[in-house]
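Deliverable D5.2: sample structural annotation.
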Amino acid sequence: MKKSYCPIDTFINVIKGKRKATIILHLFQGDKRYSELVRLLPDISERMLSKQLRELEEDQLVGKTVYPEVPPRVEYFLTELGKTIHPVLKGMMKAGHVFEDLIESEELKES
């Protein structure tokens, strides 16, 4: 995690990335195994998902539990810090719906 000039930029830099915010929203609903996240996020590669999870771990938003089984089982969870940003992400999601509705209404006017 790197501090920026503006706290908003710091926040955005931490959560920007391919589906990081979506990963956090899914984990807020409960711990998830890697395979569950793969199914929930079909539009990104497993390599990219692994990278995003690793970065979220480094930024202390996500943790993981590795169970000593064969085959290995890994579950990801939100840390306390990760849980604190949930309301902000929910607000961003609501704003996204507003913008999507606006885009759709503009597209309808054009057709």
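Annotation notes: The mean pLDDT is 90. The first strand starts at residue 32 and ends at 33.
The annotation will be released with the project's public dataset once the embargo ends.
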